[in-house]
């Protein structure tokens, strides 16, 4: 049997969270996600937590294990461990509200039809443009793709945002947002000419370079 402490909180009828202890039977080498499923399936069906791929690729099961941000599907369970939600607004139990951060996430601004070809083909792969928008369009080279790849590894689990001290006390948009802006700035297909202005307005210089985000990232 394995004992696990889980922070339970329902803002609808609780003013403060409480910690409940559960004892479950799991197989040797079980992951934290296995323990959560065992608690939900055999003891308390009201326990809420997120999960999806179970392979460390989607980021949905991120939580705190003994105070440290982790992916439940990739972290080995230990007797007596404490499971808590990330330091983000809590919806209920281990489920946090990530909608704000994902909604504000920057997206690639595509070239207009004349620049990219009205039929979807790349007619102006040389980067030239004859229309009024004056944007450029080119497919990424092998070198540019290699530069972008580390930034594309992000699974948007928001572990980095949850530990960022600047997010807590300033209007800094957070590491996930800045990572996406940097990836888009390196992408020759992006036609947003104001990336630098945008990240400055989102608090780039409020970053303290403390590296807490790097330490928390499960993909580092």
What does the model show?
- This protein folds into 2 domains: 2-97, Beta-grasp domain (Ubiquitin-like (UB roll)); 100-216, Fumarate Reductase Iron-sulfur Protein, Chain B, domain 2 (Orthogonal Bundle), CATH 1.10.1060.
- Helix content is 29%, strand content 14%.
- The chain is built from 9 helices and 7 strands; from the N terminus they run ββαβββββαααααααα.
Flag low-confidence runs: 118-128
Number of helices: 9
Q: Note the beta-strand portion.
A: 5-15%
Mean pLDDT: 89
Q: Note the gap between the termini.
A: 33 Å
What is the CATH-assigned architecture of the largest domain?
Orthogonal Bundle
In short:
The protein has helices at residues 32-42, 99-103, 113-116, 142-152, 159-163, 165-169, 175-185, 195-201, 212-216, and strands at residues 2-8, 18-24, 62-65, 68-71, 81-84, 90-92, 95-96. The protein has 220 residues and is of the alpha+beta class. It folds into two domains: 2-97, Roll (Ubiquitin-like (UB roll)), CATH 3.10.20; 100-216, Alpha-helical ferredoxin (Fumarate Reductase Iron-sulfur Protein, Chain B, domain 2), CATH 1.10.1060.10.
